[in-house]
Structure formats: structure tokens, C-alpha cells
Write a structure and sequence with these properties.
Blueprint lengths: L1 H31 L2 E2 L11 E2 L3 H23 L5 H24 L3 H17 L6 E2 L7 E2 L2 H22 L5 H17 L5 H21 L8 H20 L9 H6 L1 H16 L12 H7 L4 H24 L4 H19 L8 H14 L4 H14 L4 H14 L4 E6 L12 E4 L14 E9 L5 E10 L9 H21 L1
Helix pairs in contact: 1-2, 1-7, 2-3, 2-7, 2-8, 3-4, 3-8, 4-5, 5-8, 5-10, 6-7, 6-8, 6-12, 7-8, 12-13, 15-16, 15-17, 16-17
Length: 496
């Protein structure tokens, strides 16, 4: 009953403070020019203040500290003083990092380094992941170095998850509200007052802030708000799982936070595959794709809300089902994950032929494939040519290996010493003649043999009959390697 009372006061205290202070933050941010201006990436059409994280920060800390002090006076017990001190300091630092970014726009690497630093602070303060459990009843004790890595990764992951999902009015705050309520329901029997107070204050802050942040929003939380919410969720879930993982394992918030975590994990994969900067924002997040499908902002937010509530209910079911049926509950999120990825079009980035093609390119560039190593041997033979005749013989061998049907080398007789006035010709059939440009199915390449200083040694023509066989995946790449090798040898001949 005492924990329920603490939860009640913490929740409503934070909600009331957020309701009262957010209008003041709106006025202050507008005067200071801390606003989100319309752009190609934004879905709003006028300037909106974006420092709402200040209201979230103040309302959470006031409710948390007041209830904490009241609890200490009532019981005379100071629960986990070291952990609480580092938790509050870390929250202040991550909030300041986001606020500075809202005002001055920090570089991605500075923000990433700051997030890692806060994660290290959390671990150093004793809020560390000591146990990892697949079920809620058995876990693996982590060594110190692995505990450090998992703790920092968890903090950075949740901070960025909430930050990336914060793209529509009320989306991030609503998700955090539902996840906090879910964890609060699970934590009430745990007997961990600080965990309960923190979740209640978090839920209350989000609820009060949503009054001004839901569509149409009059204020955005900004990076200071999304960073802070992600940090609080990460730290509180570590507190809940710490020492006794059987009550609230990290698997529960992973299920409940399915939407933002899915978006966070897919974003770098998508950008990497498309050759984009991993830290550059884009319009391919889950909420952006739903908007492109024709849904309104409010409808998209409600869809993601419903998905979060559904996943939260699955998380609750996973806790209360004690037998082997709990494993089957995890199958459902897995199926939903696959269907969501397919519906949102992400499987296009992960198509088997594209991934296999990328892996082939990677192994070829690294020189791991047999074809690349064998062609490298041909390049070495060409580089070792001691005369023009030997050079041409090695070129013909390479061209045949590349499966071309005809090659013709025109050298500048005034530049390359000892070259013939007539072009050198090779055909697969061994005949003689000149190049025929009239073939409809012929693949033709004209390669100028020119150095970087624009000194021309001639031209190499290559022709392939596509009716006989198609070009391979690496033909053009091999041809360019051949061209550069020939230029290097001719340059050696010319310079003596």
C-alpha cells in the first residue's frame, strides 16, 4: 500500500507540474528563438518551440525528489544513495547535451561521445546490467567488462530510439507513457520504491506534457526531451533488472519498446546499404513511411500508440505466464516484426540478390575471391612485360580471360618507342580484320590510355558479342584494372 501511495503522488505531482510549467517553456523558447522551423524533413508548416524537454526534466525531477525526500523522512531509510546520485547526475548531463544540441546543433560524433560518456557514468555509479536472462527465471552473470558494454549499449540504444521516433506530434511522449505504465504495473509487487517512484514520475511527466505536444502540437520536446526520456527509461529498467532479474527483465522493455527499437536498428542498416551517412537524418523512418502511405499525422500516431499498447500487453502476458507457453508468446512479436518490415518496404533493402551482390563486391574488392586473385596474377604478368610484343601477348591473355571477342590496340607512334604503325589486333577466332561497329548485340568499350598528366599513349578497343555470352558481374571493374596496368607499363617503356 505504501508503494501505491508513493506511485500516486509521484504520478500526479509530475503531471500537474508539467501542465503548469509547459506554457512558460513555450513562451521562453519562442522569445529565445529555440524553434523548429519548417523544412523538407519536417511535417509541420510553421515555427514551433522545441525546448519542451525542459518541462519534462523539471516535472520529473521535482516529483522524483519530493517523493524521495518524503519517503526517507517516513522510513528513515536512504535507498541506494550512490546509485540514485549517479542516476540524477546522468539525467542532468544528458538533458544538457540535448539542450545544447537544440540551441547550437552539435556534430553527430560529439553527441554520440556524450551519450557513451553518460552510459559510462551510469555503469560507474552502480546501475549496471549484471544478469542477462532469456526467461524470467534463469540468467547469466556477466563479467565486469561485458556488463560495462551491455550497460553503455543499452543506454545509448534507448536514448537514440526515443530520439529517432520523435518525428510526429506526441509520438515519443505517448510511447514513453505507455511503456512506463506497463513497467509500473510489473514493478508494484517488486518492493523497489525508487523504481516505482521513477516510473510514476516519468509517466506523469509525459501525460502532462502531451496536453501541449499532441497533434496539433504547440511545443516539441526537442533533443533535450527525447534524450532525457530515453535515458530515464534505460536507467530505470536497469534498476528494475538489477540484482534480481526475475521480476522485470530487460526483455520486457525490449518488447514494449518494439516500435522505436525496430526503427533505431533498421535506420543505420538502411543508410549503410544505400550508401548514406549513418548519422544524417532522412525521411525513411517508420512514421515517415506511414505518412507516405496516405495516413494523417494523427492517424499515424494512433496506429503506433495501438501497436505499443499491444506489445505492452504481450510483455505483461510474458511475465504472468509461468510455463513453456511463455516461449510461444515471443513468436508473435517475431511474426509481427517480419510483417512490419515487409509492409514498410524494408525487405527491398535486404533482398537476397542485392545482399549477395554486395557481398560479392566486398570480397572482390578485398581480393578474397578466386577470380580477383587470378586476374591479379595476370596484372602482375602484364607489369613484368619487357617489350611491346610481350605486353601485347599478356594483354591478349587478359582480354581472353575477360571473355571478350575482339581487341585492338592503337598506340601513338610518336610517343611510344618501337611501336608499329599498324594497330595490334586480337580476335577470339584468331582471324584478322578491323573492328565492325554495326553489330546490334555488340558490347563496345573505347579506353583511352592516358596518364594523370593527360599524356596519351593510344587507345584500346574491346568488343564482346552479347549473343554468345553476357558480361560478368566484374567485367567493367577488371577492364579498368587492365587499363591502368597497361598505362603503367607504357609509362615505364617511354621513360626508359
Amino acid at each position: 500500500m505504501h508503494d501505491i501511495t508513493l506511485s500516486f503522488f509521484s504520478f500526479f505531482g509530475a503531471a500537474i507540474v508539467a501542465l503548469l510549467i509547459t506554457p512558460r517553456v513555450i513562451c521562453w523558447a519562442s522569445k529565445k528563438g529555440i524553434c523548429d522551423y519548417p523544412s523538407s524533413r519536417r511535417v509541420h508548416h510553421h515555427c514551433i518551440p522545441r525546448a519542451g524537454g525542459i518541462a519534462l526534466f523539471i516535472s520529473f525531477y521535482l516529483a522524483y525528489l519530493v517523493v524521495l525526500i518524503f519517503s526517507i523522512r517516513e522510513t528513515g531509510i536512504i535507498p541506494q544513495l550512490r546509485e540514485q546520485g549517479f542516476f540524477l547526475v546522468g539525467g542532468g548531463l544528458i538533458f544538457l547535451l540535448g539542450l545544447i544540441d537544440d540551441i547550437r546543433k552539435l556534430s553527430p560524433w560529439v553527441k554520440f561521445a556524450g551519450q557513451i560518456g553518460v552510459g559510462l557514468l551510469v555503469w560507474f555509479g552502480g546501475l549496471d546490467v549484471e544478469l542477462l536472462s532469456v526467461t524470467l527465471h534463469r540468467g547469466i552473470v556477466l563479467p565486469g567488462w561485458l556488463s560495462l558494454g551491455v550497460t553503455v549499449f543499452w543506454v545509448v540504444l534507448l536514448v537514440n530510439a526515443i530520439n529517432l521516433i520523435d518525428g510526429l506530434d506526441g509520438l515519443a511522449a505517448g510511447i514513453c507513457l505507455f511503456v512506463a505504465i506497463t513497467l509500473l504495473i510489473l514493478s508494484l509487487p517488486s518492493g523497489k520504491p525508487m523504481f516505482i517512484i521513477g516510473l510514476s514520475a516519468l509517466a506523469g511527466s509525459c501525460l502532462g506534457f502531451l496536453r501541449y505536444n499532441f497533434n496539433p502540437a504547440s511545443i516539441f520536446m526537442g533533443d533535450c526531451g527525447s534524450y532525457f526520456l530515453g535515458y530515464v527509461l534505460a536507467s530505470l529498467t536497469i534498476q528494475g533488472a538489477m540484482k534480481s532479474h526475475a521480476t522485470v527483465a530487460l526483455l520486457i522493455p525490449i518488447i514494449a519498446l518494439g516500435v522505436p527499437l525496430l526503427d533505431t536498428l533498421l535506420a543505420p542498416i538502411r543508410r549503410f546499404i544505400l550508401g548514406k551517412n549513418l548519422f544524417r537524418p532522412d525521411q525513411s523512418h517508420i512514421h515517415h513511411i506511414l505518412l507516405k502511405l496516405g495516413y494523417s499525422q494523427r492517424r499515424v500516431v494512433l496506429i503506433i500508440y495501438c501497436t505499443t499498447v499491444f506489445l505492452a500487453l504481450l510483455a505483461l502476458a510474458f511475465v504472468f505466464v509461468k510455463d513453456q507457453r511463455a516461449a510461444f508468446i515471443l513468436v508473435l512479436p517475431g511474426i509481427l516484426f517480419f510483417l512490419a518490415v515487409k509492409k514498410l518496404g524494408y525487405l527491398e533493402y535486404l533482398a537476397a540478390d542485392k545482399v549477395w551482390g554486395w557481398l560479392r563486391d566486398l570480397t572482390d574488392e578485398a581480393g578474397l575471391s578466386t577470380e580477383r586473385r587470378s586476374f591479379l596474377n595476370l596484372q602482375m604478368q602484364i607489369m613484368g612485360s619487357g617489350s611491346l610484343d610481350e605486353l601485347w601477348e599478356n594483354i591478349c591473355t587478359a582480354v581472353e580471360r575477360l571473355d571478350f571477342d575482339l581487341a585492338e590496340l592503337h598506340l601513338e607512334k610518336d610517343v611510344v618507342p618501337g611501336c608499329s604503325k599498324r594497330p595490334l589486333l586480337w580476335t577470339r577466332s584468331g582471324g584478322t580484320g578491323s573492328i565492325d561497329f554495326s553489330g546490334r548485340y555488340q558490347f563496345k568499350i573505347e579506353m583511352p590510355l592516358m596518364t594523370e598528366s593527360e599524356r596519351s599513349y593510344g587507345i584500346l578497343w574491346l568488343i564482346k558479342d552479347l549473343q554468345r555470352s553476357n558480361i560478368s558481374h566484374y567485367t567493367l571493374r577488371r577492364v579498368e584494372h587492365l587499363r591502368r596496368t597497361i598505362i603503367g607499363v607504357l609509362d615505364k617503356f617511354v621513360r626508359g
